[in-house]
Amino acid sequence: MHSERDTLVIPPADMAAVDRDAADSGISSLGLMERAGQAVAAAALRRFPGALRFVVLCGPGNNGGDGYVAARALSAAGADVAVFALGDPARLAGDAAAMSSAWAGAAAPLQDFRPETGDVVIDALFGAGLARDLPEAALRAVEAVGTLALPVVAVDLPSGVDGRTGAVLGAAFKAAMTVTFVCRKPGHLLMPGRSLCGTVEVFDIGIPARILMRHSRHIRLNSPAIWGGALPAAGQAAHKYTRGHLAVFSGPATATGAARLSAAAGLCAGAGLVTLLSPEPALAANAAQLTAVMLKEVDGEEDLSRLLEDRRLAAFVLGPGFGDMERARAYVRRIAEAGRRLVLDADGITAFRDAPEALFPLFAEGAPRLVLTPHDGEFARLFPDLAEDGTLSKIDRAQQAAARSHAVVVLKGADTVIASPDGRALVNDNAPPWLATAGSGDVLAGIVGAHLAQGMPAFEAAASAVWRHGEAGRIAGEGLTAEDLPAAIPPWPRP
Fold first, then answer.
1. Would you list which residues are annotated within the binding site?
2. How many structural domains compose the chain?
3. Cα 110 to Cα 437: distance, rounded to the nearest angstrom
4. Do both 430 and 472 map to the same domain?
């Protein structure tokens, strides 16, 4: 059964507030640290039962306190344990000082650490709250451990990874597994931090959900548990129009493939009817390739205006291979004026690069009807100031862009972020690396369009499309091409 904690993502600053609220409510912070360290020890023993020595690297704060608890638990289990401390343990304060005192063994300076073959390293130097480059002694430890390719169990987050942005601060351990507490932090999901965490285990150390929700900021891991019930159920009397009519704009005769990929994906993702809207010179090229997808000539604003008289056309995809920037802008205005829903991708986004302020007001009224699906380069064309701001995480950029544009923003990548104008954000983690192939984004746009056409709210339509797209990549397997993806789109997941 799904628990709210399973998808919750809390940035480090808010997690510090959670810890303070827990202590103020009477929960023993020392008890929380004890449970955290015990969980690390248990995970390390379970994952690496044949370790010749557990080397515990303890930092100067509470992460180090977790490490001292883990060292004590590992030693009590009969393991060979060596502890190395960054800084003087005598200068520790609070709970970390208490746990350091409870450790009966020695704690050598971190500078004396010399890794050996057969070691398993418990990285308890810095947790998710690190906001500066690693000190020199820690950098040398990272290098030494990496040279021998020793397995690392990270406490909370691999030291050197920024828990808010996922960025690497100078250098970072590459962990085989990470044991974190209460819930995930952005650094576990955002690249490159995610690639350094290994397997992530989230351990509930006893902080009540009511405290977590107070500081959650509406950031979650993208999961069917969040949007699984958002697809309207198809009754016994359903027909193709009740399942949604999606229209996809084709490019010119020399660039029709991208739009056909989107259209095929829309059909496989559940739209009852998909029509490819083609300029006259591209009709023959498209007709030769289409079967279940319908084809209609739309070769200017007048054609589109007549088409929009049919209210059954619920959603549009514009951008894949489109090419004509002036016509793209005109079509977007017509669709917005008609009150329809739109996925704007690729050339559709680029068409507004010189005047994004001409796009955003078009969809400003009512519930979100516009879904933008940029990769980083396209994002920078619409939101150059956000793209250039190095203080923002990918989540921050997507959230601010969504609020500015009154659109759902799907900021694509290995760590795709889906953000709503109301502040909600999801981070996706199920996309395999081989999904990064030409045409993959066109397929995603078609899935989003299908979900919109079926009546889903824009945020849930986009989030579920990103997840199904990732699953399609996993199902199609390594070596896939974009043409393999539509047939691999999985059935709608039911919670």
1. 62-66, 123, 127-133, 156, 159, 258, 321, 375, 412-416, 441-442
2. 2
3. 44
4. yes
Binding residues for (6S)-NADPHX: 62-66, 127-133, 156, 258, 321, 375, 442
Task: Enter the pTM of the model.
Answer: 0.96
Domain that holds residue 339: 224-488
CA distance 174 to 195: 8
Q: What is the dihedral of CA 167, 11, 464, 321, to 10 degrees?
A: -40
Position 294 in a domain: yes
Annotated binding site for K(+): 63, 123, 159
Segment 268-302, tens digit of pLDDT: 999 999 999 999 999 999 999 999 999 999 999 99
Contact 290, 257 (CB under 8 A): no
Binding residues for AMP: 412-416, 441
Residue type, 379: F
Q: Name the DSSP letter for residue 477.
A: -
Q: Which tens digits make up the pLDDT trace of 2-45?
A: 567 789 999 999 999 999 999 999 999 999 999 999 999 999 99
Q: 376: which 2 tokens? A: 């980083």
* Cα angle: 319, vertex 406, 431; to 5 degrees: 55
